[in-house]
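Reminder: ligand-aware prediction takes two inputs, not one.
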Amino acid sequence: MLQTVDAGALPRLRMYVGGEWVEPASGTWLETVDPFTAKPWALIPRGNAEDADRAVRAAHAAFRTGPWGKMHPSKRARILFRLADLIEENADALAEIEVRDNGRLLAEMRHQIRYVPNWFRYYAGLADKIEGTVHPCDKPALSFSRPEPLGVCVAIVPWNAPLLLLTLKAAPALAAGNTLVIKPAEYTSATALKLMELVEQAGFPPGVVNVVTGLGPEVGEPLVTHPLTRHLGFTGSTRTGAHLYALAAKDVKRVSLELGGKSPNIVFADADLDNAVRGVVGGIFGATGQTCIAGSRLLVHAKIHDAFLDRLIAFTKTARIGDPRNLETKIGPIANSMQYEKVLGYIDIARQEGAELALGGRRPEAAECGEGFFIEPTIFTGVRNAMRIAQEEVFGPVLSALTFEDEDEAVAIANDSEFGLAAGVWTSDMKVALRMSEKLEAGSVWINTYRDISYTTPFGGYKKSGIGRENGIEGIREYLQTKAVWISTAAEIPNPFVIG
Ligand code: ADP
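Here is what comes back for the chain with adenosine-5'-diphosphate:
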């Protein structure tokens, strides 16, 4: 199970660098807290720039001089397939760890982690199918291009879906032949460390995959600014993403950023309302609203507003809130105390702005919720799109309901946002659905569904929701660069001093 080096009250985890389990240079650890009990359950190493440097050097050596750099892609693929099998075998154990760290529902995390091996298999399958191109060259030469890996890639991931979001980066990066340093969120580092046991068993050469843990500015930033790192794959807030983008720009590093959202879920009057209610509830209260793709703005046609809200509220009230390990629970706690305070703050802001509280807005009273970081599913009506509650990402179980009169107004409200991650459209009219899919400024548009993600389908943001795409064939291109090779076919090289 988890790496323990101290027999003290809490297990002390170690980082994984250059194929070894190491203690942090600082000699200090951070508590990782179970959000259901609000009590610490393990200690994670507080890494710093020295640890980051060790990890990057190990990854660089593995890329330059280790067997990984010379390995045929089909052999790399075999290791990735083994890792997929090992994750599958350990999925439930990984899910238990994830739930302890971030309070997500055990039922949901089991499902999610059982799905994770698909990414490793998809990209393992792609590893030996990345082909170059022979160009129709207009010169007496053969010119062709070779897709090549970038070198050391950095993956910085958040706390809401730690293993999945790490996988979205690790699978294509490794399949493409890069080496990797992962920095999980300080609240949820345990599954990334557990994964390293499986990486070891799968047979990755030392240094190909490394994990350093700790605080973003202390150990994450030195990875981004390190002269030997070539790419940053980041999922997290727009604020942190923009900061890291600026740092990466100084050294002209590539970035893939998957950032915030304020996604509209748009319900037309002709929609199947039972399905729409489920989609809207799943979109905002699934994962207790803590997903970048949360459908946090409900745009509902004025004609059905009251009837729809009644149904929505009645259905939401049926959700059991409490222990995330209970398989009957539908809504768990907020993942950490900082986020908990932030969500409560936004509920106050919405009230002050004049939005009407139609449901929730408080801590639940159930004894089971105890000291945990719980907030009732919350719905505000009478929201105007200019309000902060409609413009800013809350990252919690708070839905803002707005109305629209026609298609054009729905599009105008939906696109009046600095974000553009996703959108949902609920209608029985496929003409409306297709027109909406063209007009919405969003990286994913779901028609009569919401929150679907697959390893096959590109995912990413418009506007301030991000740069680049994860998943699908596009996803591996983020981790490749093109080298053009020219071979002269001329019998004689022209005299460079004679032009024309
Ligand atoms: P949140 O505010 O929701 O925790 P962040 O975007 O700040 O989201 O965090 C996402 C990831 O980015 C986490 O792994 C976090 O440690 C990391 N991070 C935060 N700040 C920095 C930073 N200045 N440099 C590098 N990584 C950072």
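Residues 156-158, 183, 185-186, 216-217, 220-221, 236-237, 240, 243-244 surround adenosine-5'-diphosphate (CB under 6 Å). The chain has a mean pLDDT of 96. We will return to this case in the review session.
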